[in-house]
Write a structure and sequence with these properties.
alpha/beta, four-stranded mixed beta sheet, about 30% helix
Length: about 300
């Protein structure tokens, strides 16, 4: 990734959405004045991220790897429901030099701390900040509060929900709650993305794989459950899952026979999220895998 050519920022306590919009405009104007070449505001989406406090560091690291690949307006929402009511904002304009061209491409990052009652009404805050006529994605860190007002409000204003079910503790039960969201918005799962290389290897075994009875997976529980759900949904019958926990997806076997390990390095968290941000329609194969896992 190219070095950031310039980083302009602003911080405000107890601000309004109108102030945030005004300060964003000011940052862009001042950046254009100081720039030696044109600053291109080429946002391709609005990227929302619901990030409880324990996930802030990981979210910033992942999002930092996306700014140049997906120029966007990124809105990081950090809920603080137990604090006094208020809205704290940190704005930054990140500009990257264009290779072989005179100028920069710029992305906007808006980090909002939703305090007190603001944490329970996020849609009223983010809706005025969405870029008109561009898709909006919501990355939800941790296990979604499926029945909570925050979840319902936010998926109502976005085109796609992106989760990572490896971050969930109550599996496979939580997949049943996720199924309920499929008719409300398109859904992506980074855990599903981590299995794609292994699913390709499994698919190469057709038609012999049609007779498999047992799937053995060494890796995160979410990845193992989704692989098993995918096989069950494709074969339309039961497949027993034998799971051994590991930090990453390390090995897969069918009826005791090891599967060939995929070539190459596993993608990074930024790579996986980047892939999901390029998907726009519903993934029926993923939905079928989740449904088979939840049943």
């Amino acid at each position: 990734m190219a070095a950031v050519a310039r980083l302009d920022d602003w911080t405000g306590e107890d601000v309004t959405v109108s102030e945030i919009v005004r300060e964003l405009g000011r940052l862009r104007q001042e950046s254009a004045v100081r720039s030696e070449g044109p600053d291109l505001r080429t946002s391709v989406m609005t990227h929302l991220a619901w990030v409880p406090e324990g996930w802030v560091g990981a979210a910033r690291e992942t999002l930092a790897g996306l700014a140049e690949r997906h120029p966007s307006r990124t809105i990081i929402l950090v809920p603080e429901p137990d604090a006094d009511d208020g809205l704290h904002a940190e704005l930054s304009l990140q500009c990257f030099p264009l290779p072989d061209r005179h100028g920069n491409v710029c992305s906007e990052v808006i980090e909002l701390r939703l305090r007190g009652g603001r944490a329970r009404a996020p849609a009223s805050i983010v809706t005025p900040l969405l870029i008109t006529d561009l898709p909006a994605f919501l990355r939800w860190r941790g296990e979604p509060a499926f029945g909570g007002p925050e979840f319902g409000q936010l998926i109502a204003v976005v085109d796609r929900l992106v989760v990572d079910s490896q971050e969930w503790t109550n599996l496979p039960a939580t997949y049943a709650r996720l199924v309920e969201a499929f008719e409300r918005t398109a859904v992506s799962d980074i855990a599903w993305g981590r299995t794609v290389r292994w699913r390709r290897e499994l698919a190469l075994l057709w038609p012999a794989i049609a007779d498999v009875r047992q799937l053995e997976v060494t890796g995160p529980r979410a990845d193992a459950l989704l692989l098993a759900g995918w096989l069950r949904s494709r074969l339309e019958r039961s497949v027993e899952l034998v799971h051994e926990e590991a930090d990453r997806l390390e090995a897969v076997a069918l009826d005791g026979e090891p599967l060939r390990r995929p070539r190459g390095e596993a993608p990074s968290s930024s790579d996986l999220l980047s892939e999901e941000l390029e998907q726009f329609g519903r993934d029926r194969i993923y939905e079928g895998a989740v449904q088979a896992t939840a049943d």
